[in-house]
Structure formats: structure tokens, C-alpha cells
Specification:
Chain A is mainly α. Helix content of chain A is 75%, strand content 4%. The first copy, chain A, binds a DNA duplex through residues 12-14, 17, 22-26, 28-29, 44-46.
Chain lengths: 201, 201
DNA sequence: TCTTGAATACTTGTATACAAGTTGGTTAAG
DNA sequence: CTTAACCAACTTGTATACAAGTATTCAAGA
């Protein structure tokens, strides 16, 4: 995802196990995981690195929006005080992370915020789908957030603000308002992520 | 899924490799796959079998509907003659399968029908999600279809009819009609599958 | 009787070995 | 010069070996 491995590169289990000083077994498992995430494609001989195109990132965000839309549809009409408390805590930690330039922590809290919402829906199958894209989204957020912190630190504030807006919308228990707010937020991150990831790749 | 392994049963790699006369490596991979599908849960020692509840099956159908809804939203306004031709072919094969009591072929064509629609959307990430539930849905269809063929063969006809209706709706290029038809079809299968699977489990 | 502890028989994770098959290059023949 | 065939160096999939850690059982002592 960082672009370190160029699209089309062929990875072999032997080569990787030598490179990382471990045996083929854990490498093999890692390759399966990456394949499930769609980052590599397993073929007869060797695993080929799939480059991330703008389209791929858009598709990733299609799925994020799809999942979160579904989840919020279920949550919107109920009161979720304990969820909101956790979300506020997460935002507080984002602020702390921004203050002390801890971009890893910031990215993690951003992910955490959305994950909390999904978990709240209490839907095993949806949670599985989330888990299947969780790592790749975390990776995207890490790369993007690092870049954001480095290039334009002030750009972090509107991001935090958007999460505040989502909480406000949640409190209103107005389904439409909630969905709008989430959609707007995702459009925003979608653009930022696409821009930073494709620069590096 | 057939209920052969009761909920809570603990599977060990050693035990399974002995039982199936193969080494731990392929068993291990199989367990990962089952874990990704949510049929077992990997814990520190042993993998525990997750029983399928009514709720689990409903959740599975939530996801099917979610995916197909998303896909059809994208397809509905365009003309898809080649897709429709393939879908009609699939229905023909369902009819053949019904005629000659080939329930495996029937179940496969049922799956195929919906898979064709998803493939047509040409969306990598959505296709990955589909692939992650494909096997479990096929298993469900196989069990259900076998039971349907055995108990009440005539019940197969409305099922075929529903697929016809979906094609008609697709031809109309009326988004709302398409979505309604798919929803109705899924409600139907959802109930049938829930009923047959829980009897056996 | 209950608790504690040690031994044993499991478990998984990783490393290595081997078999079967694919790819690519080099050599020999036409 | 081209083509075909063989060989060598790779590949993955599976089997096996080993190390580290965990659960359970049984016995001994409080």
C-alpha cells in the first residue's frame, strides 16, 4: 500500500522467508491474508502484487460507506448513550494525539471511532466483513495521517470536527441527518486518502 | 452447517489430520478458511464449532441483500443484454436440473444466477465480499435444495418463477421494481433456508 | 475435604524436508 | 538461423520434526 512494492512484483515464499529470516509457514499464512485483502493475487507460481488504483480506493470507500450506512440504519432510532460516550472518548484521544504529534495514535482512534459504531450494531456477519477490510483501511489511514501531519497539520482539525458532527447527528436520532453526515465525512476522507496514497505509489 | 458437528465441539489440528489421513498443513489452512467464514472460532487451544442460529442465517441474508442491492443500484439504469442472456441460460439449466432431479446442479445454478449479477457490477471489492460468503451460501443452498427436492418437489417451481420475475424486472430497467423483486426473492429463500437448516441442526 | 503443585499429555506456531510440477535457458540437431 | 528437447533451478503443496506453552489430572499436604 505504501508503494514500496511496485505493482506486478512477484513474491515467492522462499524469497520472503529468506528476506525476513523466518520459515515459509508464517510467510505462507501472511500471503493468504494479503490475498484475502486483495493486495496480492496468488497464482500458480508466485504471488503478484496488485497495485492500488484510484478506482480500488474508491471501491474500498464504497464498501466502508455501505457497511456504515447499513449499521447506522439499524442504530439511528435507538438511544445509544454508552456508544456516544465511547465515541467522545475516542475524539478526545484524537485531540491528544494531534497535540503531541502522535500520528499512529490518531489514525488508530479514527479507525476506532468507526469500528465502535459497527460493533454497536451487534451483527456478526457485518462485523466479519468489517474485519476483512479493517487492516487495509488501517494501513491507508496510517499512511494518509502521517502525510497529513507532516504536510499540513491544520488539516487535521476539520477531520476532528467531522467526527463531532457525526456525534451530534447521532444524538439527534434523525436517520437522514446521520447518513448525510457520514456520507460527507467519507467523501472527504476518500479524497484525501486517494490523493496521498497515489502520490506515493 | 449440516449439523453433523454440534455447536461447541472442539476441533484440533492433530485430531483432524489423523481423521482425514493427511498432515496438519492442509488442515490448518482449512481451519483458517472456516474461521474466515465464521463457521468456527480459533482460540488458544482448539477451534470451536459455531452453531448456526436463526439469527445467524438472517444475518447472512442481510448481507446477501445488502450486496445485491448495491450491485443492482449500479446496474439498473443500464442495458445488460449479455447479462440477461446468461441469466436466462442459468434458469434453463435450473429447469433441466429440476426435471432430472439433480439437486446439486440446481443449487449451483441458483448460486450462479446471483453470482452473475454481482460479477456484472465489475466491482473488485464487492466481489471479494461475495467470495467471502460464497461457499457458506452454497453449502446452505445445497442442504436446502436437497431437502426441497426430497420433501416437496413442486416447491421448486415458484423458486424458478421468482428468478424469471427478476429478469423481467431487470429488463424493465426500473430500479425500484428490480429491488422489490430481489427483496421478495430473498425473503422467500431466507425463510426456506432457515427452516431446513435449523431442522437438521 | 480442600487446596496446591508437579507431571503428563495435549495444544499451537514455526522450521525443515521432500515430492511433484513449472519455467527458462542452453545445447544440439535440422 | 530456427526449432526442439533436455536439464537445472526454481515454484508450491504436503509431511514431519521440534519448541514452547497450556490444560488436566493425580497425589500429597494442610
Amino acid at each position: 500500500m505504501s508503494g514500496e512494492l511496485k505493482k506486478g512484483t512477484i513474491l515467492s515464499e522462499n524469497q520472503l522467508s529468506a528476506e525476513f529470516g523466518m520459515s515459509r509457514s508464517p510467510i505462507r499464512e501472511a500471503l493468504r491474508v494479503l490475498s484475502n485483502e486483495g493486495l496480492i493475487e496468488l497464482q500458480r507460481m508466485g504471488a503478484v502484487v496488485i497495485g492500488l488504483t484510484t478506482r480500488d480506493l474508491n471501491e474500498l470507500y464504497d464498501v466502508r460507506l455501505l457497511l456504515e450506512h447499513f449499521v447506522l440504519e439499524r442504530l439511528s432510532e435507538v438511544n445509544h448513550d454508552s456508544l456516544i460516550k465511547k465515541l467522545e472518548q475516542s475524539i478526545d484521544q484524537m485531540n491528544m494525539a494531534a497535540k503531541y504529534d502522535e500520528y499512529v495514535e490518531f489514525a488508530y482512534q479514527d479507525l476506532r471511532f468507526h469500528e465502535l459504531v459497527i460493533i454497536e450494531a451487534d451483527h456478526k456477519r457485518i462485523l466479519k466483513l468489517w474485519e476483512s477490510i479493517r487492516e487495509i483501511i488501517l494501513a491507508a489511514l496510517l499512511i494518509t495521517t502521517e502525510k497529513r501531519f507532516r504536510d499540513d497539520k491544520a488539516a487535521v482539525l476539520p477531520l476532528i470536527e467531522q467526527h463531532h458532527e457525526m456525534i451530534k447527528a447521532l444524538k439527534s436520532q434523525n436517520t437522514e441527518r446521520i447518513q448525510d453526515e457520514v456520507k460527507r465525512h467519507f467523501e472527504d476522507t476518500r479524497n484525501t486518502i486517494t490523493a496521498s496514497l497515489l502520490n506515493e505509489a
